[in-house]
Every structure is written in C-alpha cells, then in structure tokens.
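Hey team,

Filing this mostly as a record. A colleague (T.K.) asked me to run one chain through the structure pipeline before their review meeting, and I want the input and output archived in the tracker in case anyone asks later how it was produced. No errors, nothing strange. Just documentation.

Input sequence:
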Amino acid sequence: MTEVISTADAPQAIGPYSQAIKHNGLVFISGQIPIDPASGTVLTGNIAEQTNQVLKNLAAILKAAGSGREKVLKTTVFIKDMNDFAEMNKVYGEFFGDHKPARATVEVSRLPRDVSVEIELVAAC
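Output structure:
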C-alpha cells in the first residue's frame, strides 16, 4: 500500500509532488531545500546554516512517516559549489552521528530558489 506523507512541520510541496511517499516499509522523501516551514522563507545563510535547515525539514518528514534518522538508508546531496563540501559534511555528520547511510553528493549548476544545497533520502519505516 502506498501512503502520501505530509506534515506542516516541513515546507509544503511547491509543485506536483509529495513531501514523501511511504511504500512497502520504505519512505522516499523528496528533495528538501532550506525553507523555514513556519514562515515559508528561504534561508539564505551560509552552507552550514542552509544544510542545518534542510536536515531539520527532513527530520520532520521522517517523524511524520514514523521513521527517524537512524533508519535512513540512502541520501543524495545536491550542492551548488563543491568548495562548500567540508562545511556541509560537518553539519551532515553531526546530524547522523554514528549512523552512516549510503550517500551520493553531486555538484549542480543551480537549485530551486537559488539555494546552495538540497537533500533527498530513502529510509526504512
């Protein structure tokens, strides 16, 4: 059975997609960018601040899906400038702690709303 996951604690989808889809014990979370869900404002701070907000958004969706960061299996990080990798990676590492999901990191030329980072993930429920 497929279930659409949505929470007010993360930015609402701004297009024809869902925040997440839960299916067969997995949750697939759409790419999150650094939007403050309370105000709808895009965070334009440094890469560490942006990454922190993205991870908060992902955590809120994981919670709504009945999952958590310790159940994340795979992430994909889209970063605008690979020179920001070390800073992004520090915040990312602090978020996951000892848990080390599989990951791909890709430098891209542009992201929605001209942010510096977007992260999507797959987790167990």
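Quick notes for T.K.: Helices lie at 47-64, 85-96. The longest strand covers residues 72-79.
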